[in-house]
Amino acid sequence: MPLKLFDATVSSFDGVFEKFRSEAPNNKANLILFLADKDPATNLSWCPDCVRAEPVINKKLEASSDNIALLKAYVGDRPTWRNPQHPWRVDTRFKLTGVPTLIRWENDTVKGRLEDYEAHIENKIEALVADK
Fold first, then answer.
1. Which of 107, 104, 105, 108 is nearest to 128 (CA)?
2. Using CB atoms within 10 A of its CB, is residue 45 exposed (0-12), middle (13-18) or buried (19+)?
3. Mind listing the pLDDT tens digit for each residue in 53-94?
4. Domain ranges of the chain
5. 91 in helix, strand or coil?
6. Which residues participate in catalysis according to the annotation?
7. What is the distance between the alpha carbons of residues 110 and 105, in angstroms, rounded to a whole number?
8. Partner residues linked to 70 by β-bridges
9. Is this structure's pTM higher than 0.70?
10. What is the DSSP string of 19-70?
11. Does residue 71 contact residue 17 with C-beta atoms inside 8 Å?
């Protein structure tokens, strides 16, 4: 099973992140995907860029034969995310400005990132995973 998935919300993130970090040395790539929450009525994200990027990212990672860990971190509903004091906006490790954001996490730091406007581009996802 090359792709290992973790899911976290703002409230569950610290515990899930610790597990993700503890297993990081076993993987070729460790990625964190910050996404907007899904609307329970439609099961689609309120963020159009997330709706576009998530399936492309999933497809690329699932096609890999390498051991990859993906932590999907859900930022909350639109008003929660829009708050300038959102925990991941002010967190010095992540410095989020938009969703989706795909981060390569290596040696306990951000090694690379794709921002909202580029997180759906297949060759950029491949390059991030391959660390090029």
1. 104
2. buried
3. 999 999 999 998 889 999 999 999 999 999 999 999 999 999
4. 3-130
5. coil
6. 47, 50
7. 5
8. 5, 31
9. yes
10. HHHHHGGG-SEEEEEEEPPEETTTTEES-HHHHHHHHHHHHHHHH--S-EEE
11. yes
For tokens 């899930």, what's the residue? 16
Query: CA 46, CA 95: separation in Å to the nearest integer?
Result: 21
Q: How many CB atoms lie within 10 A of CB 17?
A: 17
Helices 48-63 and 122-130 meet at what angle, rounded to 10? Answer: 50
Report the distance separating Cα 123 and Cα 125, nearest Å: 5
Whole-angstrom CA distances from 40 to 17, 44, 46, 74, 78 are 25, 8, 10, 14, 13
Beta strands 109-114 and 101-106: pairing type? Answer: antiparallel
- Determine the pLDDT at residue 40: 84
Report CA 55 to chain centroid distance, whole Å.
12
Instruction: Tell me which of 3.40.30.10, 3.40.50.170, 3.50.50.100, 3.10.25.10 is the CATH number of domain 3-130.
Output: 3.40.30.10
